[in-house]
Amino acid sequence: MSDEVRLERLTPAEIDARLAESSVVYLPLGSVEFHGPHLPTGLDTLNALGVCMGAAKRGGGVVLPPLYLGIGGGHSQYPWTIMMPASGETVRPNILRSLTRLEQFGVGVAVLFTGHFADEQLAMIDEIATTWNSQDHGMRVLATGVNRCVSADLAPDHAGVFETTLLHSLHPELVHLEMLPDRAGHPSADPDGDVMGPQRHDPAHPLWGVFGPDPRGIDLSTSSALLDHLVAWLSDSARSVATPA
């Protein structure tokens, strides 16, 4: 059986062979969104895809091409951010069509996994999964995201320590901490130590667009530990849906 898990790179026979071992298909969801000067705009999707690929390699299954179509959040007017309407009207049909076809192919579990965890995005995938699972379908849907692993050592954030660390574990060449202002000369001014406060929306702030702990100076040599933890958690979550107690 091929070690490749990305569906678009597999032949029909290879897809069938992988799904015969574990009938799970992952659909990574993300966005195109500003994540400070040190990270790429596709971070959410890259992180989601990386975790899904790790989970499929660990526990079986295949991974659909990711959707860079995000909704919601407080960054819609930032540079090079392209959000879809917050209602989800342009995203939901894509997801539902994919789920319908997966069920027709005989897939047992579909996992909607988002790296963009704005409230609107999470509410959309939760609604899709709840509605789908309440109906007479042979396939089950799990909706979750990188922010829902409560056992992770790092708390989820936006372009801070968590997201920077996770992306580094997947694509270290895309993390450019040197693009942030020098920490000694430009300390983060956060009233009452609030790293999620509105001051971070100010372009003059040294951590403009970064919501979470200051990533400058973090040790990224052990970034793979976060990825390994998320991969194991997601793989086990998909397995629990496939074989409920």
Structural write-up:
The chain is α/β, with parallel strands linked by helices and 245 residues long. It has a single domain (7-233), classed as 3-Layer(aba) Sandwich (Rossmann fold), CATH 3.40.50. Helix content is 35%, strand content 8%. The chain has helices at 12-21, 43-59, 92-104, 119-134, 161-170, 224-242; strands at residues 24-29, 62-63, 109-114, 140-145. Strands 2-1-3-4 form a four-stranded parallel beta sheet, sandwiched between helices. Helix 2 packs across helix 6 and helix 5 crosses helix 6. The radius of gyration is 18 Å and the shape is globular. The mean pLDDT is 96.
- Predict the CATH topology: Rossmann fold
Helix content: 25-40%
CATH class: Alpha Beta
Order of helices and strands: HEHEHEHEHH
The domain count comes to 1
CATH architecture: 3-Layer(aba) Sandwich
Structural class designation:
alpha/beta
Average pLDDT value? 96
- In angstroms, what is the radius of gyration? 18 Å
Instruction: Please give the largest β-sheet.
Output: 4 strands, parallel
| Total strands | 4
Side by side, the strands of the main sheet go: 2-1-3-4
Low-confidence stretches: none
Query: Ends: how far apart?
Result: 29 Å
Detail the topology: elements first, then pairings.
Layout: H1 12-21, E1 24-29, H2 43-59, E2 62-63, H3 92-104, E3 109-114, H4 119-134, E4 140-145, H5 161-170, H6 224-242
Parallel strand pairs: 1-2, 1-3, 3-4
Helix pairs in contact: 2-5, 2-6, 5-6
